[in-house]
Structure formats: structure tokens, C-alpha cells
Structure to design on (185 residues):
């Protein structure tokens, strides 16, 4: 039997399969929408500034990183309308909250699948940003697995960047101070 290294615990294929399954499940079950997955890519360089909406959520545990959903304002309104069961025509607080909840559901399901391989993980509260000409980037992990989905004529990007958390194995922050306990969801 060969020994599995920590970096082999989560393959890119497993991440793509997890994102695809979680996204399809949440969109079909909770929003009654069909999403067609496209070809996944790994993005390592910073992207050009974009416009629209992005919802970010952090993951922490033996592996740590960030997940996100990105889409146009039009698709955000459509997703919110399906989730809430009432029409949403402009991006407002209700739409931002709905997209944050959709992010939480999709990436929460992805987190559950990842936990089968790497153990318990925590999930942060989503942060949702809407505007023009903005960029997002991860300070520590620079390779994002991006899975595009087509919903009608619109595009939804579900993205994840995770890596082994070197800090997780340290027992103290400074001599005499214990590492805080991470609550798992």
C-alpha cells in the first residue's frame, strides 16, 4: 500500500466533481433551475477587473482557502427571484442576501464533500460584492479551480482555491497562547 501525501488528498478532478454536483443539486432542488457545466480551468494569474457580483466564503481546517460565486447582476436577480419566489428586478439588499445564501448552500455542500477526505472544516459567513471594475484575489493561495455553468443565456462561475493549512498543525500562536478552536459547521 502506498502512502498518500497531504497534497494528494484532494485532486483537481475531485474538486471539479464536488463543485459540479453541489451546484447542480442546489440549483435544481432549491431554485428549480437547470445549469449546464462547462469546461473547468485552473486560473493562476490575477484576472482582469470585472463587473457584476461576486460572493466569497472562507474555508478553514486542515485545508483552508476561499470559494466564490460570480455572475452578472441580471443572473443574480434571476437566482434571487427563484430562491425567494418573487420577482427581483434590480440588485438590492434582498438580492445580495439571496446570492450569499446560495453561495453558502453550494460551497457548504462542497465543504461537506471535501471533509470526507481532509477532515472537519469551518465555513465563514459569505461576503457579497456588487459593482464595476473590481478584482478579487487570494492572498495566500493563487490557483483557483473555476467551473463555469450556463443558466439560460447567463453564466455562473463557481470557484475554489484550497490548500493544506500549514498553520493548522501548529499548537501555539506564540509561546504560552493556544491556537483558537475552529468551530465546524
Amino acid at each position: 500500500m502506498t502512502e498518500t501525501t497531504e497534497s494528494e488528498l484532494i485532486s483537481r478532478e475531485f474538486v471539479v466533481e464536488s463543485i459540479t454536483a453541489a451546484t447542480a443539486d442546489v440549483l435544481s432542488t432549491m431554485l428549480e433551475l437547470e445549469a449546464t457545466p462547462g469546461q473547468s480551468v485552473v486560473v493562476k494569474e490575477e484576472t482582469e477587473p470585472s463587473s457584476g457580483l461576486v460572493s466569497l466564503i472562507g474555508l478553514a481546517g486542515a485545508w483552508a482557502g476561499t470559494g466564490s460565486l460570480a455572475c452578472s447582476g441580471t443572473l443574480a436577480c434571476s437566482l434571487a427571484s427563484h430562491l425567494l419566489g418573487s420577482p427581483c428586478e434590480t440588485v438590492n439588499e434582498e438580492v445580495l442576501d439571496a446570492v450569499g445564501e446560495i453561495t453558502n448552500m453550494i460551497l457548504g455542500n462542497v465543504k461537506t464533500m471535501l471533509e470526507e477526505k481532509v477532515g472537519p472544516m469551518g465555513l465563514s459567513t459569505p461576503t457579497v460584492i456588487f459593482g464595476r471594475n473590481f478584482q478579487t484575489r487570494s492572498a495566500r493561495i493563487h490557483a483557483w479551480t473555476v467551473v463555469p455553468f450556463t443558466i439560460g443565456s447567463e453564466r455562473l462561475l463557481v470557484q475554489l482555491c484550497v490548500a493544506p493549512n500549514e498553520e493548522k498543525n501548529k499548537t501555539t500562536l506564540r509561546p504560552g497562547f493556544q491556537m483558537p478552536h475552529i468551530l465546524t459547521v
Summary: The first strand starts at residue 36 and ends at 37. The domain at 6-164 is CATH 3.40.1550.10 (Chemotaxis protein chec). The helical segments are 12-30, 73-84, 93-118.
